[in-house]
Structure formats: C-alpha cells, structure tokens
Amino acid sequence: MPFNSHHKLEVKRKPNKINMDTARGFPLPHLPDNPDRISMIILRIVRLGETCAGLLIADVIRDFSNRHEDLLRIFERHLKAN
C-alpha cells in the first residue's frame, strides 16, 4: 500500500529493549572533506584560550563518556593517528 497522508499509522510498542554496550561502539574522528574547513576549525580552537578549551573538553567528556568506554584513551589514539 503506498503512503497516503490521510491514513493513520498505528504503532505498537514492544516490551523488548535494546541496551547499549559501550564496549561495542566505534567512535571515529570527524575529518571534514574540505581542507579549508579543517583549518578554520583548528583556528577557532586555538583562539578559544586554555580555560575555555578546558571547559569545553570537560563538557564533551561528561556528555559522551557514558557512550564510549575509556573516551580519553580514544581521543589520544585519534590524536596519534593523525
């Protein structure tokens, strides 16, 4: 049956839940395709200053450490790879 905005879609929630496993995630570094964009991102980071940069990285670690096991080690590995 083709989609028709006049039909009401019925959704039934199942009792099964999918729980995350931080050991199974693969956080990859984000590298923009455009080299000019990479330069602009680096320039913005450098201009932040140490205090502001420290606060921002603390926020990132707090927000994502529950998704990725040993996030600081992952960041270090990405830094060494590039």
List the helices and strands and how they pair.
Layout: H1 35-48, H2 50-64, H3 71-81
Structure description:
The chain is mainly alpha-helical and 82 residues long. Helices cover 49% and strands 0% of the residues. The protein contains 3 helices and no strands. The longest helix is centred in the C-terminal third of the chain and has 15 residues, at 50-64. The termini are far apart.
Short description:
The protein has 82 residues and is mainly alpha-helical.
List key phrases describing it.
82 residues, mainly alpha, extended
Order of helices and strands: HHH
Could you give the count of β-strands?
0
Low-confidence stretches: none
Helix content: 40-55%
Instruction: Give the overall form.
Output: extended
Distance between the amino and carboxyl termini: 50 Å
Strand percent estimate:
under 5%
Could you say which structural class the secondary elements and strand pairing correspond to? mainly alpha
The pLDDT mean sits at 83
